[in-house]
Amino acid sequence: MKKLTTLTTAAVLLSTMAAMAQTTVIEERRAPAPGETVGSAVGGVVDSAIAVPGAVINFVTGAPTRRSVRVEREIVVGEPLPTEVEVTVIPEHRDYAYAYVNERRVIVEPRTRRIVRIID
Question: Per UniProt, which keywords does this protein have (predicted)?
């Protein structure tokens, strides 16, 4: 009788372990945070933009919009802004400047004028 009880207990424990091994874990997807990289095509550049501090983004989005400068070529992260576009250096973060181009706010490196972030 004792042997039967032990075998039954062992069988019950083993069956619950197998059931636990088959448990599916579902993770909830969340929207990416501003500035967070979400991926790219296979072999593509994952993140050509440098990480822009949140304070810089907040400053640019909160700044009053000036007249937008119209540029014929496409504005792309990593490319320099044309010299005819005037940029404004951000006072608290002098490593960044911004401009309003083609109805979009762009954040650039003032020294190189390279676009580091486009804000729609």
Answer: Signal
